[in-house]
Design a protein that fits this description.
Elements lengths: L7 E7 L11 H8 L5 E7 L5 H11 L4 E6 L1 H11 L5 E6 L5 H6 L5 H10 L2 E9 L2 E3 L2 E5 H9 L7 H12 L6 E6 L2 E6 L2 E5 L3 E3 L2 E2 L11 E6 L4 H12 L9 E6 L1 E14 L2 E21 L2
Parallel strand pairs: 1-2, 1-3, 3-4, 4-16
Antiparallel strand pairs: 5-6, 5-16, 7-10, 7-15, 8-9, 8-15, 10-13, 11-12, 13-14, 15-16
Helix pairs in contact: 1-5, 2-3, 6-7
Length: about 300
């Protein structure tokens, strides 16, 4: 779907502390590359955690046709919370650390090129999902990846190498819990290092945890990675970045609309890469075609 050519109102929401600092140059990029014949625009800055959702809802209520998140997956999640199940259109200018959602949607990290996509305003109605009633667009996870997100949230330095250092530090001492999951009349029990629910295919940094995931197929991809040694983790990581993790015998993938999980202990949880409270049970549900999104 492509919008008609009347002049539209659009707001860009900038998280000034997101990612690795690229968002600081965004204001100049908007002025330079936005089609000012097609748009009138405003820029709003978040002032505290999760403020972006409030801003997004405020501008949607003002009649703005589009709201653009500038930041990473967490910033996108906040904006989506203010727009889900509405007709207001959401976009993203990637400025986070991993930018998993942008990579999945093939939105370039170059703000010039990403703004050109916004200028074209091609729209797709995408799925969202919830874990214990908390919205996610890209991936929610339990287990080791959530522990990494929890530790990463404490870091002063962002970016891939901070993630990598945390993974190396935590991997050898991580104890995998037992998960019991029910979906589609099935009930399975697995000991797992990663237990992810993927709406998009990847964590970020082009690491594809669920290569067949689609953001508008009406399903969540449940990815279970069984415990592995450090020696086996190296080829597993290569498969992750080559979008071939589904070929590993240590990985199970299921497409689900709803799932219920019981865990043998309270463990870390993440929502779109941001740490959430620890959980010992979870309910995951898909919300099909619930968000208008600007796509290439």
């Amino acid at each position: 779907m492509v919008m008609s050519q009347h002049k539209k109102k659009i707001v860009f929401i900038i998280n000034p502390v997101s990612g690795i600092g690229r968002q600081k140059k965004t204001e100049k990029s908007i002025i330079k590359y936005l089609d000012h014949d097609a748009y009138t625009y405003e820029i709003a800055y978040t002032k505290y955690a999760h403020h972006a959702g409030e801003i997004a809802k405020e501008y949607a209520n003002k009649g703005f046709e589009a709201v653009v998140a500038i930041g990473g997956d967490g910033s996108a999640n906040d904006v989506a919370q203010g727009l889900v199940n509405s007709e207001t259109i959401m976009g993203i200018l990637p400025a986070g650390s991993g930018n998993g959602l942008a990579h999945h949607l093939k939105i370039p990290l170059s703000h010039r090129r990403a703004i050109q996509i916004i200028n074209r305003l091609k729209i797709s109605r995408i799925d969202t999902a919830t874990l214990n009633n908390k919205l996610f667009i890209s991936i929610a996870g339990l287990g080791f990846d959530a522990l990494v997100a929890e530790e990463f949230g404490k870091c002063s330095k962002r970016g891939f190498f901070s993630y990598f250092r945390i993974i190396l530090k935590q991997f050898s001492k991580y104890k995998s819990p037992v998960y019991t999951v029910s979906f589609d009349g099935k009930r399975i029990e697995r000991k797992a290092i990663i237990f992810s629910f993927a709406n998009s295919d990847q964590f970020g940094f082009k690491a594809s945890i669920a290569p067949t995931a689609s953001i508008n197929d009406g399903f969540i991809d449940l990815c279970i990675v069984k415990p592995i040694s450090l020696l086996r983790a190296i080829p597993m990581a290569l498969k992750l970045f080559r979008k071939k993790i589904d070929t590993s015998k240590k990985v199970e993938l299921y497409k689900v609309r709803e799932a219920r999980v019981e865990i043998s202990e309270s463990i870390p949880c993440h929502i779109d890469g941001d740490p959430s409270e620890r959980v010992s049970s979870a309910v995951i549900k898909i919300n099909p075609a619930s968000l208008n999104f600007i796509v290439p």
